[in-house]
Amino acid sequence: KTIYLKDYQVPDYLIDETHLTFELFEDHSLVHAQLVMRRNPEAGAGLPTLVLDGQQLELLDLKLDDRELGEGDYTLTDSHLSLQPTQERFVLDSSVRIHPESNTALEGLYKSGTMFCTQCEAEGFRKITFYLDRPDVMSKFTTTVSAEQHAYPVLLSNGNPIASGSEEGGRHWATWEDPFKKPAYLFALVAGDLWCVEDSFTTMSNREVALRIYVEPENIDKVQHAMDSLKRSMKWDEEVYGREYDLDIFMIVAVNDFNMGAMENKGLNIFNSSCVLAKAETATDAAHQRVEAVVAHEYFHNWSGNRVTCRDWFQLSLKEGFTVFRDSEFSADTHSRTVKRIEDVAYLRTHQFAEDAGPMAHPVRPDAYMEISNFYTLTIYEKGSEVLRMIHTLLGPELFRKGSDLYFERHDGQAVTCDDFVKAMENASGIDLTQFKRWYTQAGTPRLAVSEAYDAAAQTYSLTFRQSCPATPGQSEKLPFVIPVALGLLDAQGNELPLRLQGESAAQGTDRVLSVTEAEQTFTFEGIAEKPLPSLLRGFSAPVKLQFPYDRDQLMFLMQHDSDGFNRWESGQQLSVQVLQELIGQHQRGEALVLDQRLVAALRTLLEDESLDQAMVAEMLSLPGEAYLTEISDVADVEAIHAAREFARKELSTALFAPLWARYQANRDVSKATPYVAEAAHFARRSLQNIALSYLMLSEKPEVLAACVDQFENADNMTERLSALAVLVNSPFQEEQGKALTMFADFFKDDALVMDQWFSVQAGCPLPGGLERVHALMQHEAFTLKNPNKVRALIGAFANQNLINFHHADGAGYRFLADQVITLNALNPQIASRLLAPLTRWRKYGAARQALMKAELERILASGELSSDVYEVVSKSLA
Ligand code: ARG
Ligand code: ZN
What we know:
This protein is of the alpha+beta class.
């Protein structure tokens, strides 16, 4: 069943107060709910039937204003409970029995290991009690939790603790009260044997907030990084957005079994343990940065999501796009802005662009869905963040801040829409964003083709922009977007030219933003004494596919001279893409592969310049990945892409051996002499060290192997150890590789998150026999389909990061993935549906692969009863 945005109606009834009591037991749990309700004055006259959401609930008792209701008084289906109120105001009491102990979908109340926890967004609360489970119904909650004292010493819910006590029979209870009205999706409960690290934060108005991070006892040594990140986030949100925390206590709980990254429940964030736990010995630099970013993201939701929430789920990007933008700016301010931008753009272009070109393409504000869980997408999150970034670019930082202040002030305590957000930005800035809003309603990645014309006599230089956007499901025609294009012009010496547009009396700097608003539009710069080289879309100022006919020498020039760090990297990427595409063509024509030596020269220059940011050098050395090369192909040739990229890597490793070895050794020496620090300069050093190592090992020289084994065995941190392991796994040195894998697993067998990395490294190995290795690893005692992190680490890594093996021409990879999806459909529909994404991309491949992939999608469709999650993705992919 499809739900449409155009059908939105305000709720018939409101719930002013929600009083919950949970009695947790090992073989069932009881939930008593007292809802203080009233007719919604905005919904019209009369008393319509009250329709509550409820799934998988065993109704034990129902009372309307103390009147016991019998079977004739209500209607119960597998998704709703309906009854007829007789007054405008009433109190509804219900008791239900639920089974968290057998809930493998990890939605609603469930058990992760021995602890009870919840995940209610988007529609999990209806699996806890009968309720108006929609974000525009906001209520004040009090929650009492009762459980056996010994097994569940810690009992948590949203807000402040107000009472607790013990009961006979070894049980105890605690009551929590949340003074802020909230929708049910922000409800949370945790009960378990947990330890916590405590700290505090003094807010800008001098209120002291207690901070607690709860984990299972064995993880108590991995919490400090998350705590530090939390305090930095709280400070940053005060400084940059003027947002202060509002409760006396802020809690984070780490759970091992969690479908997503984390959840911003009011005052009680629940996190996938992979997004909280980090220490040098067990978590990589990337993991440290992810923990910091997710902690910040969930914290920032307290304002962008909780104080101001979404009217309905079509508005999801209102909170997610905005909050991703906020957390990415926080990371940029905390570490390196350029490197953060490069990472975000590479991710967006590889994965969101692919989604935007596939069968599940949807606008940032979708107008229809079958299963909302399928819409927690790269488009809602990452493209949504790009839309916010463009507003920030168009308004500038001051007006943007004025707009966000107005938004928070105007809508505090409300459930609102993306239109309300844009309206606040317009009102505060005086800038009309009517046309800009097409970014919210039109799906697909716009193309922006740029051509130039230089008139030497008139000393004018013109850039003509032509925008278009491919058709996406349900949208054949697109209207022009507002595309902010940040740019500069370089002269032959690499100097930036003053930019004066026709009609302007003076130049406005050397770096400015043009707004492209028409299908075709020309901008003419005056006073340009020689033909310049344009640096376009600086900082990736809009999420579009830019086309400008640069030749390779021009790209090399920009790599060295562009004042915009992002575009220096981008020029290098474009150069690499051109070179790789040439190799792909050679491979397809059966010719000998010949690497353009200009790429070698460009990378040599970078490697030999020790004044450059090492992270930038590392980013430049990382050739565009196979997934990105797939995305930009019309028809992706899996073998040619792999062969071309591997050939280029091998050639580079030979040609650049000396400078790579020098940089590797110098950085490894610093690593040996320096204790681990999770900061940008150290991330940078290790990233250059490790990418150098991966190139060097292609030489198969004994001194490199020895260095790699030494790094694996003696590193004091997971970043170095895991990189060395990955390089060994991808190498032909069977003996060293086997030894390393065994050593690693023996040492870390009790640390689930480290074992996830051990699985991933092997799942991603491109050497032949990939599927057989994955099959074998699924039998490993540490593997289970019931834990989403394990599924992602092994099966997800195989299907998404091991393209040459997953797309093996015999179709065995596809069959394997479909089998896992069918099994997971019954166990955990959200994970099943996400795992399936690679199969939905069948249009990218040649006829033979298309047929094999479609056959597997058909097989899933015919496999029996499908969850709405899997059904929506499969049926749309085949449509
Ligand atoms: N709101 C969470 C976040 O911060 C995501 C939770 C979504 N969970 C889900 N099962 N759909 O991004
Ligand atoms: Zn979020």
